[in-house]
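TL;DR need structure tokens for one chain.
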Amino acid sequence: MSVMRTKSIEQSIKETDDPEFQLKKKLTALDLTVFGIGVIIGAGIFTLTGRAAANYAGPSIALSFVLAAVCCALAALCYAEFASTVPVSGSAYTFSYASLGELVAWIIGWDLLLELMLGASVVAQGWSQYATLFLEKIGFTVPASVAPGSHFDLPAFVLIAALTALIAIGIKESLRVNLVLVGVKLFIVLFVIVAGLSYIKTSNYSPFIPPATAGKASEGLAAPLIQVLFGLTPTTYGVLGIVSGASIVFFAYIGFDVVATTAEEAKNPQRDLPIGIIASLVICTILYVATTLVITGMVKYDKIDPKAALASAFESVGKPGFATLIAAGAVAGLMTVVMTLIIGATRVTFAMSRDRLLPPALGRTNPKTGTPVRLTLIIGTVVALVASLTPIGKLEEMVNIGTLSAFALVSLAVPVLRRNRPDLKRAFTVPFSPVLPIVAALISVYLMVNLSVETWLRFLIWMVIGFLLYFTYGIRNSRLATRGSQVPAEESSRT
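>> reply
TL;DR here they are.
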């Protein structure tokens, strides 16, 4: 029972026709693009923009967003090639199963589950805070006993319960609601850009790249791993500040990879998936850069409110009414992020269940809805409890490390699959392979070592739990373990 056994592309695609595990093909390129925008534009544009500009790069944070977008684009190209070649639910998990082996696939699936479930919980708590603020502005106060920060965050729980029910009904129905909410969110973002143009003071852009200053070194477990390993002294502003800012705002782009989890539900995956992944990333980059330039033009970078940059910027120019509108946009924006992350977590665990690495009964689809209802309810319940009962705090970094580890492995898997299966038809290919995939992997690893030692320790604990599950259940019960005689010859020769 080799842990490095792989599953052929043909076998993965054939299993999508299993009536008990069959998803309905309903999604178009527009659906996938909206899906990507829905998860990418969220907390990042409403909160992260101001914090990164004030603390790391000043007005040049716009360059940080561009740099982060380039880094993400490299990983996006790798995802696009895989998603168009292997149009099967599961994203990076499925890709690695076909190229790097079962154990690596399990590791990535376990990473993605951490990213998506914890990410949905964290964003739901952020949504709860914005929703409470918005309700206060219109005259309704949430009782302190069930407000954000209390022992039970009722708004976060109600949000996830409602979204879970919607997702269980059907993917197309979920994305119709997502389309409306993304439209609201884009309107708010465009409103901020257009309305803010008339309040820009060009003097606020000077200096565009503030002089570099020594940053405050973190101590103990809170210190970045790279600082502990190499003794590097952190800096803010200057050129290195742009790079540091890119490490922070990189996480505002996390989400385009979730588009790949819906590969099996695309009508024309070879064409639509690359469009959805790349188009959503390009659109969000343009909006991020434009918003950043407006905010740093309205308010001097050292006076930006890191907690509510957009609302505070308009209050500073005598437009407090706009803050209510922005809060409403944040409520809509974060709602789409939570929904998309829950869908992504459900589709990854669905793929793992169909491969028998998790109990298969969990992933069976409902013949009426075409969705894995049982699994959706389980994922939704866990996310709701974590969001409403747990003070997440620094665990937000766990979302990042899970994502980046998946980015690195997917990037490395592209040249591996090209070497092992040069005969596969690829509707989209990464240019300059293997150089670009290797660069994408190295960038992901670099950003990972910028995370704290504490985050790495928690990540290792999570991985130990995952290994225990795999070696006590998955290794003996997977499809490849129980149906080895059906594995194609070229595959069995590699196991």
